Amino acid sequence: MIPTWAQIGYLVAAVCFIVALKALSSPKTARAGNGLGAAGAVLAVVITFVAYKPDHLAPILIALLVGTVVGVVGSRRVQMTQMPQLVALFNGVGGGAAALVALLELSEVSADQTVSAIATAFTILVGAISFSGSIVTFAKLQELMTTRPVTFPGLPVLFVAGLLGGIALAVWLVSDPRVWVGVLLCLVGLAIGVMLVLPVGGADVPIVISLLNAFTGLTVAAGGYVLHNSLLLVAGTLVGAAGTLLTKLMADAMGRSVFNILFGAVRGGSTLG
Amino acid sequence: MTESIALLTIFVLAAFVGVEVISKVSATLHTPLMSGANAIHGVILVGAIIVTGQAESTWVMIVGLLAIVLATVNMVGGFVVTDRMLEMFRGPGSRKKELHK
User: What are the tens digits of pLDDT across the range B64-76?
Assistant: First the structure.
């Protein structure tokens, strides 16, 4: 159990995130809101180091440094027009990180902790979907591949088969939490993510990024449940809920429905290229 | 079981808060808001540090360190790129000043 002061510190960080989202919704306060969010994140990381006293401190700090350098350099160098794909990439690596954390937690979860096992399976599957889906959206926006919707006969069948396979593996994992089943679930999630985004046209991609962003939020929330960490639970749920609403608002602004954006090309209807 | 219920309560309340706080967002801020929310879920970094800090085998540590790198890129890059986007939202006055520098 972590000390009370750390839990209160996590609560302060969670409030920073809530106020940050609120401030980001208005042009006057948006930039300050983003700064407050960053301050909350730094606070959360510092608390984690002091409260959990992690082993392997040197490699952890080096990994933090590497991630910081990559993040800062990447976002400073990018052209203004390339920002959406950078956000997609950042979202993808976040989802990937959540899936990896859940895979590592598998060895701690026993079969009688059903809810934790469900949350772990959810994080692995949806984190992997978010990762590969975001990579494909990145490739589309960066024009590493065609921006037109990509479909082929049998894609809907393959997609549904992937979903059913993913659910079956998740159920298996819940009843018998083994690492190799988790790895298999992760691979199926990666395939589902690719199939989800391939049929989406270039103009609709920002809305899909927003949806995958909400997915990653939910995986972080589930990860917080498994780790009994209230901050991850609050922050992840906030992003999951806000991201879902934002996805709908963005689709409304374009006069489209989220369902049509995702599956319009597959159903043979028109979709913006 | 009581802790599970407490966590479930937090989850449900946070979901309502998440919807409520952004419900009045102006359309010009859709992309920066998405980017800011994206940076916030980078706090999975906290989970990655906890798991790596308890690692007892080499492969757990390697995968954990990879998760730390990815989560840090998400968090740090997310906040920096959001800040750059929002630079464009400054009033016309401040932009003019910059041109005359």
Answer: 999 999 999 999 9
Cross-chain residue pair B86–A48, CB shorter than 8 Å? no
Domain boundary residue among A28, A59, A77? A77
Does some domain include residue B1? no
Question: Which of the 8 DSSP states describes residue A244?
Answer: H
Tokens of A24: 């980001």
Q: Is the pLDDT of residue A1 over 80?
A: no
Asked if the ipTM is above 0.95, the reply is no
- Out of A22, A94, A209, name the one closest to residue B71 (CB): A94
Quick check: A230 and B7 CB within 8 A? yes
Q: Which 3 state secondary structure label does DSSP give A57? A: helix
pLDDT at position A134 is 96
Q: Which range of residues forms the domain containing residue B65?
A: 40-101
Closest residue to A60, CB basis, from B52, B79, B86: B52
- Whether A27 sits inside 8 A of B54 (CB atoms) is no
